[in-house]
Amino acid sequence: MNEDEIARAVAHVRRWIAAHPDWRRWSAEDIAAALAQDDDWATVTLAGWMRIPDGALIAMIVEKALPYPTNIGVEVLVEAIQIAARKRTRTQRIGALTIGAAAAALVWTLFNS
Prior knowledge:
- It is a single chain.
- This protein is an all-alpha fold.
- The protein has one domain.
- Helix content is 70%, strand content 0%.
């Protein structure tokens, strides 16, 4: 991610936090589920964040969005974003496989008719 993408991700995390003031009471799974339901969140390239081992990029973005001393709950939010990213990546893979299989079936049908 470049600096502009990081700045957009930090801004998005800040907007999400502001829209969900009680997020610190939620589990990582609950936050991940809320992120999955958020249409704006879908525009953020979560899967790209996962290329950094141990979610270091996710942690950096969340820590920028929640600087000390307001950073209580950073670990839970980082975990939630990692869960949401893994779910989104898995869903994208399944979608790509489904489209690929449908295209292969169409090509096979066209060539065998």
